[in-house]
Write a structure and sequence with these properties.
alpha/beta, 5-stranded parallel beta sheet, Rossmann fold, Helicase, Ruva Protein, domain 3, binds magnesium ion, 14% strand, single chain, binds adenosine-5'-triphosphate, 20 helices
């Protein structure tokens, strides 16, 4: 950050307001204070603030209403909501209304500073992407075509996609599993000058080395046992379009050398062939691995890395872009409703809370699966907390504990699934009689799918 961030602290409690302001000033932020919503809006009409820290419980205009006013009148000001522990519902409400994050009271200066540092990073991204943001703000679905995201980090990714799409240089997309790397690769292709050419994808992690070689380069008839016909490889197929090497970190050293040669000479041969072939493709690679670490361990070639990493796009994990969780969930709910023809399901507040507080090790793919399963499990069109089954039940449990009744029901469901929904067998595993289990199932609306 160059200039100091301008922060507005809005809290009706004098002591709270003063101590937050003092902490912020100490860390070099420019601070103004307001005792309520009306005063805050007045100040914002005179001065531009990068960020507002807003207490949710205030007499008169409360924090949520102020948040909505700020988002409509000053959409470029980031808002952090301060809520008391135990009223997490309101923080979910706030995230839905466009808050960038929330702080639970009581918090210490260090927590506040960490959050502010994250925000100044986001702020810098926002500045870069103001024009794009304006355009997105007009759309109904917060996102970029079929890529949903309204966090500053994703807006930066959208901006980057537009930039790199216009060029021909190789792009390397990095990000944890399930963050949307393939989606981004396709978006780059479909926005570029080769959009009408093919997009040829190959997962380099999924094949043995020999197979990968003939998949990529193709082979001549009789090149190896089983090669009864000549075949074109992916390199040839990508001519005029894009070649997407997914999981590029898994490619063996030998194949890296072979590909490096193709990229440098623009020529190659099929396996078992001698004719020089050429293909004109744009290269897009993706990996969930840290390639520089692999290089330092001697497991990835530096020269190959320089070739594929001319332009880079990093997609941050979902846990670092809280604002995207609810819009993504809504997107998947729309999608499944369209696909199944069932009425569009809605998330209950406790379900939203659980989604927003879970750490998402499997990122967007896991979120999609969680929503898909919940839609199947929900008896009506309401999705409750207990219908959400996470990859890491322990992390979900820590983030948002279940009630005893919810835990019981989850356990019953797991046992029923394990017993193929045979009620008698499940009852015997659970150590209760069949009638009791049937009653519990009926009460909870549990039925075999
Ligand atoms: N921002 C997003 N908006 C909408 N859908 C998304 C988004 N990000 C990911 N998805 C969806 O999540 C799933 C996983 O995305 P994708 O396959 O692109 O991830 P990936 O990073 O390539 O994962 P992996 O590393 O496991 O291959 C897909 O169904 C994709 O459509
Ligand atoms: Mg992928």
């Amino acid at each position: 950050m160059t200039a100091a961030m301008q922060v507005l602290v809005v809290d009706d409690e004098l002591a709270m307001r003063e101590s937050i302001a003092a902490w912020l000033r100490q860390d070099g932020y420019q601070v103004a204070k307001a005792a309520g919503g009306a005063e805050a809006l007045q100040l914002m009409a005179q001065e531009v603030f990068d960020l507002a820290l807003v207490d949710i419980k205030m007499p008169g205009m409360d924090g949520l209403e102020l948040l909505r006013r700020i988002k409509s009148e000053h959409p470029d000001t980031l808002v952090i909501i301060i809520t008391a522990y135990g009223s997490i519902e309101s923080s979910v409400e706030a995230m839905k209304a466009g808050a960038s994050d929330y702080l639970l009271k009581p918090f210490d200066p260090e927590q506040l500073m960490l959050l502010l540092q994250k925000m100044s990073g986001q702020r810098a991204l926002l500045r870069e992407n103001l024009a794009l943001r304006q355009r997105l703000a007009d759309g109904e679905c917060p996102g970029f075509g079929d890529i949903v995201g309204r966090s500053p980090a994703m807006l930066a990714v959208f901006g980057r996609i537009e930039e790199v799409a216009e060029t021909e240089a190789p792009v390397l997309i990095t990000g944890e599993t399930g963050t949307g790397k393939e989606l981004v690769a396709r978006a780059i292709h479909s926005r570029g000058p080769r959009a009408f050419g093919p997009f040829v994808a190959i997962n380099c992690g999924a094949q043995a080395e020999g197979l990968l070689e003939s998949e990529l380069f193709g082979h001549e008839r009789g090149a190896f046992t089983g090669a009864v016909k000549a075949r074109r490889g992916r390199l040839e197929m990508a001519d005029g379009g894009a070649l997407f090497l997914d999981e590029v970190g898994e490619i063996s050293a030998k194949m890296q050398v072979a590909l490096l040669r193709v990229l440098e000479d623009k020529q190659f041969q099929r396996v078992g062939g001698s004719q020089n072939l050429s293909s004109d493709f744009r290269l897009i690679c993706a990996t969930h691995r840290d390639l520089s670490q692999l290089i330092s361990q001697g497991r990835f070639r530096q020269d190959f890395y320089y070739r594929i990493n001319v332009l880079a796009i990093h997609i941050p994990p979902l846990r670092e872009r809280l604002e995207d969780i609810i819009p993504l969930s809504e997107h998947f709910l729309d999608k499944f409703a369209r696909e199944t023809g069932k009425p569009r399901a809605h998330l209950e507040d406790k379900a939203c809370q659980a989604l927003c507080s879970y750490p998402w090790p499997g990122n967007v793919r896991e979120l999609r699966n969680v929503i898909e399963r919940a839609v199947l499990l929900a008896p009506g069109d309401k999705i409750e907390r207990r219908q959400l089954t996470f990859l890491s039940p322990q992390a979900a449990e820590e983030a948002s504990p279940l009630t005893l009744a919810e835990m019981e029901l989850n356990h019953i469901r797991r046992v029923l699934q394990a017993q193929d929904w045979n009620v008698s067998q499940a009852a015997s595993v659970l150590g209760i009689d069949r009638g009791t289990l049937s009653r519990k199932m009926k009460k909870a609306g549990l039925r075999a799918p």
